[in-house]
Amino acid sequence: MPKISANNSFQTVITTFEMTPGTCQDLLEALTDAYENFISKQPGFIAAGLHVNDAQTRIANYSQWEKREDYQAMLRSEEMRKRNRIINDMCKNFEPVMYDVARTFG
After folding, report:
1. Residue 59, beta-bridge partner list
2. Which domains does the chain have, with CATH numbers?
3. pLDDT in tens, 29-77
4. 1, 48, 71, 75: which could join 63 in a potential S-S bond, CB 3.0 to 4.6 Å?
5. Rounded distance, CA 81 to CA 94, Å?
6. Chain centroid to CA 62: how far?
7. Beta-sheet pairing, 58-65 with 45-52
8. Structure confidence by residue, pLDDT tens digits, 85-94
């Protein structure tokens, strides 16, 4: 489970995917498979969550990594490059962005 805190040293990555309602479930299944069978087993992986909007036109992915280099190594792997080509074909676009937690509330 992701732990959101401004006091952690994790690398946070938020990725948004834009797709049609007709491909949302397929994309969600592909992302779930990627996390269950590959991404979650990579060095430095901490946690992740997948969120779907009510119109099924966007998926937001929140992931945490020990360091940014761990995330980058996973992305550059042959396995993830292959998976990302398939994922890219299912959506209009997707954009991973690295963030630092600035503040938390609640």
Report:
1. 17, 52
2. 11-99 (3.30.70.100)
3. 999 999 999 999 999 999 999 999 999 999 999 999 999 999 999 999 9
4. 48
5. 14
6. 5
7. antiparallel
8. 999 999 999 9
